[in-house]
Design a protein that fits this description.
The chain is mainly α. The chain contains seven helices and no strands. Helix 5 packs antiparallel against helix 7. The relative contact order is 0.13.
């Protein structure tokens, strides 16, 4: 059975590859082509319907942006609450040397893994909330539309709204990608946190069991020693 190391690495250490310069240039070309198509269309047929749909698309993009920002704020609150809990496990993961060295080393490795992913999740959440450029039909656009010679207000509004939607798509998609990365990292943190608690609880239980067994053996040995009389002393 062939192991897919790339997928395995992505499972334990998810990363987001940056676009190359060629891919960025290609995206810019596609954006310009889409904007040209929007402006080149006449929009004469069912003009009112097209305007309503353009407004709906604009509202949906704004909802996606607001949803990503709200999720990032919730995730940051969860990270803030999880950080002290994870930090409280440091003594058990570092100073517990009386147990198995393998268990101690495994606990310390899982703790470091969870701590690094916690930091990464916080950075991705902050990237989601980062201020980015946003386009909308504002005062200047409305003034330009109504100050033109041609009285095709609806058509101009369609073009303005669709152009804003298309320009905002990259920024909104980036926010959604950042929040997905935050979500993926938090899932791995909770799994690591659960494993760490499970390993430490099992190790504590095993250590306690061994201690109880040693105490029982010592008690039995002490009873046997008490039952033996010294030389020269006879029982009556």
């Amino acid at each position: 059975m062939k192991v897919d190391w790339l997928r395995l690495k992505e499972f334990f250490w998810p990363i987001l590859e940056k676009l190359s310069d060629d891919e960025k240039n290609k995206e810019a070309e596609i954006l310009e082509k889409d904007l040209s198509k929007i402006k080149a269309n006449t929009w004469n047929d069912s003009c009112e319907l097209a305007l309503n749909e353009a407004k709906k698309l604009n509202e949906l993009e704004e909802q996606r942006r607001a949803s990503a920002d709200s999720k990032a704020a919730i995730y940051l609150a969860a990270i803030t609450a999880l950080a002290p809990v994870l930090t409280s496990l440091i003594p058990g993961a570092i100073t517990k040397f009386e147990g198995s060295k393998f268990i101690d080393g495994l606990s310390f490795f899982i703790f470091i893994y969870a701590l690094i992913n916690l930091l990464r999740a916080a950075l991705w959440a902050f990237d989601t909330l980062k201020v980015s450029a946003s386009h909308r039909v504002d005062v200047n656009e409305l003034t330009d539309i109504w100050s033109g010679d041609e009285k095709k207000y609806e058509i101009k509004l369609i073009i303005a709204n669709l152009s804003c939607v298309r320009r905002n798509r990259k920024g909104v998609n980036l926010k959604v990608t950042c929040i997905k990365m935050t979500h993926a990292l938090l899932l791995r943190i909770f799994v690591a946190f659960f494993l760490l608690l499970l390993i430490q609880s099992a190790n504590l239980l095993i250590s306690k069991t061994n201690t109880d067994n040693d105490s029982s053996l010592n008690t039995i040995n002490n009873k046997d020693d008490c039952g033996k009389l010294p030389d020269g002393i006879y029982r009556i």
